[in-house]
């Protein structure tokens, strides 16, 4: 199960209580909201977490694929440069 830091958990419970009260006109109290949040974290949390991991992996893979274009260096450049310089002096 996904664990939230205590302060985050407390704020999430308060937010859930407020949402249910203001949007659905439903008052389930602190314990009810805490239980509902724990259920969501256990049941739906892994889906959200796995999606975040997949999104991060795709983004990193895209960046790695761009890496050769960003940091590529020409190999054995000395003699081709010298030839170009010599042609330029003529």
Description:
It is a single chain. With 90 residues, the protein is mainly α. Helices cover 80% and strands 0% of the residues. The chain has four helices and no strands. The protein has helices at 6-23, 29-43, 45-71, 78-89. Helix 1 (6-23) crosses helix 2 (29-43). The protein is rod-shaped, with a radius of gyration of 28 Å.
Search tags:
90 residues; mainly alpha; 0% strand
Give a short overview.
The chain is mostly helical and about 90 residues long.
Q: Count the beta strands.
A: 0
Helix percent band:
over 70%
Average of the residue pLDDT scores = 93
User: What is the alpha-carbon Rg in Å?
Assistant: 28 Å
Written as H for each helix and E for each strand, in order along the chain, the element string is: HHHH
Helical stretch tally: 4
How many strands, which pairing sense, and closed or not: the largest β-sheet? none
Structural class by sheet pairing and helices: mainly alpha
Contiguous low-pLDDT stretches (5 residues minimum) are: none
**How far is the first residue's CA from the last residue's CA?**
74 Å
Instruction: Report strand %.
Output: under 5%
Secondary structure: elements and pairs:
Blueprint: H1 6-23, H2 29-43, H3 45-71, H4 78-89
Helix pairs in contact: 1-2
């Amino acid at each position: 199960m996904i664990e939230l830091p205590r302060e985050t958990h407390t704020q999430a419970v308060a937010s859930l209580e407020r949402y249910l009260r203001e949007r659905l006109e439903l008052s389930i109290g602190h314990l009810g909201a805490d239980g509902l949040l724990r259920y969501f974290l256990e049941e739906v949390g892994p889906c959200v977490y796995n999606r975040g991991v997949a999104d991060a992996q795709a983004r990193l893979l895209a960046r790695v694929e761009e890496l050769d274009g960003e940091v590529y260096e020409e190999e054995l450049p000395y003699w081709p440069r010298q030839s170009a310089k010599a042609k330029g002096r003529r």
